[in-house]
Design brief:
It holds the Pfam family Myb_DNA-binding. By secondary structure, this protein is α+β, with helices and mostly antiparallel strands. Among the domains are: 41 residues; 59 residues, Arc Repressor Mutant, subunit A (Orthogonal Bundle), CATH 1.10.10. 39% of the residues lie in helices and 9% in strands. The N terminus and C terminus are likely disordered. The protein binds a DNA duplex through helix 3 and helix 6.
DNA sequence: AAGGAACACAACCGCGCTACA
DNA sequence: CTGTAGCGCGGTTGTGTTCCT
């Protein structure tokens, strides 16, 4: 099973990296890209394994890394994200541009955990410690599993997406001839960084990237109401575009080839501070909009109404679930 | 000033997943 | 179908630094 072959090789350096090694690796990747990591050390003239090179690059040498202490806003965001995602550090890091999973993990273990305990909050459950103690005494047979395997809100959402809108505090449903359908999130830090909003003929919602990673080349097949996520069937608009004119900003990347974390690092919407990140509005093309108007849309009737009625949640969850499954299979 | 404790962070380890021959 | 290589992730360990007695 996936053991790195170089792990067995001898004569490879381990431990801290010297400035000379850093320079060699940096020069090599800057000039040639990393390509296959296992070949990097040889090509760069390093006595390291590829895995070690990869780690060094990702956690230390990458030029887009943000240096320095975490801001209170970042710490708050990490706490909120941890409540949703658990110890999925890479996913948390993907929402904090310039920060690495390792960095966040270290911060969590050395700093945030302690702060939460001081505030009387259990860092694993995010509940008041008194409540957690009570749970422990009442459910002696049910030992709580470690945080990494305990169900997070995200897992809960995957099973019961009807809670999605409630959890993320989706507030309003909007319809606009230029933007199509969109859901306005509330102003919580979590919602402010929800990366994408989607709409199709009969569904609308905000999608947390983990479930429905924005990979626009993926076609949403099931209901055939649109090829919304086909590369030709959507367009992007971002904070630079006003809602009325909706001038479009198309990322000049090959999204097909790009993972979300890379994408988020490279788009103008996400490469700033988290405070500045805003949802990307995905707008359909004119042709699509023309079709939309002919489709019975359960949401268009709910314009400017809260989304939290059971009926809304039910329809929404079914569509969302279908979409998540579709994406899950495609990713 | 010395030494031990606590802390912060870099790096490693082991596992799961995926692609590919 | 199966074994192997490579990648990525989360958990853990190691090491340097700071703080405290």
């Amino acid at each position: 099973m996936g053991r790195h072959s170089c792990c067995y090789k001898q004569k490879l350096r381990k431990g801290l990296w010297s400035p000379e090694e850093d320079e060699k690796l940096l020069n090599h990747i800057t000039n040639h890209g990393h390509g296959c990591w296992s070949s990097v050390p040889k090509l760069a003239g390093l006595q390291r394994c590829g895995k070690s090179c990869r780690l060094r690059w990702i956690n230390y040498l990458r030029p887009d890394l943000k240096r320095g202490a975490f801001s209170p806003e970042e710490e708050n965001l990490i706490v909120e994200l941890h409540a949703v995602l658990g110890n999925r550090w890479s996913q948390i890091a993907a929402r904090l541009p310039g920060r690495t999973d390792n960095e966040i993990k270290n911060l969590w273990n050395s700093n945030i955990k302690k702060k939460l305990r001081q505030r009387g909050i259990d860092p694993n459950t995010h509940k008041p410690i008194s409540e957690v103690d009570k749970d422990k005494t009442t459910t002696t047979s049910n030992k709580s599993p470690p945080s990494s395997s305990s169900p997070t809100n995200q897992d809960f959402f995957l099973e019961r997406p009807s809670d999605f809108s409630e959890y993320f505090g989706l507030q309003k449903l909007n319809f606009n001839s230029n933007l199509g359908l969109s859901v306005t999130p509330d102003s919580s830090p979590l919602c402010s960084m929800i990366p994408a909003q989607f709409s199709t003929g009969n569904m609308v919602g905000s999608v947390f990237q983990t479930q429905v990673c924005v990979k626009p080349s993926v076609t949403l097949a099931p209901d055939n109401t649109s090829n919304f996520f086909d590369s030709g069937g959507f367009s992007w608009s971002g904070p630079n575009s006003s809602s009325s004119s909706s001038s479009l900003v198309k990322p000049n990347h090959n999204l097909e080839e790009m993972k979300w974390s890379e994408y988020s690092m490279n788009t103008p919407f996400f490469n700033g501070s988290t405070q500045n990140s805003q949802p990307i509005y995905i707008k359909s093309e004119a042709e699509y909009l023309a079709n939309v108007s002919n489709i019975t849309d359960p949401w268009s009737q709910s314009q400017n109404e809260n989304l939290n009625t059971p009926e809304d949640s039910d329809v929404f969850s079914k569509d969302l679930q279908r979409m998540a499954v579709s994406f899950g299979q495609s990713l």
